[in-house]
Amino acid sequence: MGGTYDMLAAIATSDNPSSTDDISTPWNESVLFVLGHLVPAPLTGTCTTTTSSSIRCIQRDIETPWKAIDTARTAYETAVGQQTSALSAAQNAITKAEDGLAAAQRGYDEAAGSAIAAARSADVAVARARLADAEAQLASAMLPDSPSVQAADAALEEAKSKLATAKDALLDADSTQSSSVAIAQGRLDTAREKLAELEQAGRDELALALARAQATEAKARLDSVRATLAGATVRASFAGVGSAVGVERGQTVTAATNVVEIIDPSALEVEGTVDEIDVLSVTVGAAAVISMDALGSRTLQGTVSEIGGTASNQNGVVSYPIRVRIDVPQGLQLREGLSATANVTVRSERNAILVPVTAIGGSFSRPSVRAIRDGREQTVEVELGISDESWVAVRQGLQDGDQVVLAAAAAAAADARLQRTAGAGQGQIFVPGGASTGPVFVVPDGQGGFRQGGGGN
């Protein structure tokens, strides 16, 4: 299926898509056209749970509503199955009640038949008793005191007793069967009421399940529409001021269209270059001092925010792009496009003793200087620190106020460099009276330290 999603994404982002639907394909070309060319968000075919929500994913747009529909369908089928089971149980209860009613009716019919037969037997006995009474009356009329008349009277009384007993039995049987029928009828009515309640509950459950399924589907559609709407809104990652708008009303845009440019006036940077000699010494976060023609002698502080990895070569000079973020003081408003120069501190050494580079002699492993001590010129081994093209820091071997001997030409050059250097210490060059060894350089007092730096324009 992933291949199909990727194919749909490829169709949607093709250079010549169709905006009308082709009924011969299982997908809608107009929808793919909207996704690929009208929705301002990156489009992909397949995705995972870690894929950003800002990326429009065809797999997620299709499978999320489909899973909701499948869940609703499963809930609906479960409710139908439960309703079927309830209806079956109610039907069985009705069948049992009807069977009980039929059995009670049969018992009633049998009891009624027995009572009728008993009544008929009693009627025959009464008729016979009456016949015997008539015969007895006849005999009594003929022989009033004969034993046969007395026997007839006794038989008549016995017949009357049997008739009364038979009538009571008939009434008891009718009462018992009527009670059984009433009980059976009550059970049937109860079963029917329960069946009606189950049928109504089943209809309510089914309607509820259907409503829930419809609500789930509607929510999935709403979420999809909200996602589409959110994807149609371009949001900046920071607050700022719009500097340029690249589209017009009604224009068709894609994910690659530059809609608007936004600048942050509180975050300004100097874009410049640093040559290949100094680039390895510059690091992100290094301090910098920025000067601008628009600010005169005023300088600003900043830090290196970015060092480019791609070099440029102009007339054999290799350089790298660099960005220096300016710490803009409150109340100062700068404009984009102003020229600026940034001096980046690549290394620093505090409270250093400075001497001109031309004063260093000796070897690479054992550097030294010529200094005046005890009234005479001596060679003093020194430990050197950082340096630039003019000055070098001496960590050990010299003290504040020591006089260093220079050649005349080197002394003049050192004097010129000293006067050009700002904030690197105080010092002077002079020629002591009667000295034959050449000019002497007085070591500066080291206040303010020494910095080595590079710059970017």
What's a quick, concise take on this entry?
This protein is of the alpha+beta class.
Overall mean confidence score, pLDDT: 75
Strand content: 15-25%
Q: Major β-sheet, in short?
A: 7 strands, antiparallel
Helix content: 40-55%
Query: End-to-end distance, in Å?
Result: 56 Å
CATH class of the largest domain: Mainly Alpha
Domain tally: 3
The topology string of helices and strands comes to: HHEEHHEEEEEEEEEEEEEEEHEEE
Structure description:
- The protein is α+β, with helices and mostly antiparallel strands.
- It has 3 domains: 68-231, Helix Hairpins; 265-349, Elongation Factor Tu (Ef-tu), domain 3; 353-449, conserved putative lor/sdh protein from methanococcus maripaludis s2 fold.
- Helices cover 44% and strands 23% of the residues.
- The chain contains 5 helices and 20 strands.
- Strands 5, 6, 7, 8, 9, 10 and 20 form a 7-stranded antiparallel sheet that branches.
- β13 and β14 form a beta hairpin.
- Mean pLDDT is 75; it is low at 420-455.
List the defining traits of the structure above.
457 residues, alpha+beta, Helix Hairpins, Elongation Factor Tu (Ef-tu), domain 3, conserved putative lor/sdh protein from methanococcus maripaludis s2 fold, seven-stranded antiparallel beta sheet, six-stranded antiparallel beta sheet, 5 helices, 44% helix, rod-shaped, disordered C terminus
Fold topology:
Elements: H1 2-12, H2 29-37, E1 43-44, E2 56-57, H3 58-142, H4 147-231, E3 241-245, E4 260-263, E5 268-275, E6 287-292, E7 299-307, E8 312-314, E9 317-326, E10 340-349, E11 353-356, E12 361-362, E13 367-373, E14 376-381, E15 383-387, E16 391-396, E17 403-405, H5 408-420, E18 428-430, E19 440-442, E20 450-456
Parallel strand pairs: 1-2
Antiparallel strand pairs: 3-4, 5-9, 6-7, 6-10, 7-9, 8-9, 10-20, 11-16, 12-13, 13-14, 13-17, 15-16, 17-19, 18-19
Helix pairs in contact: 1-2, 3-4
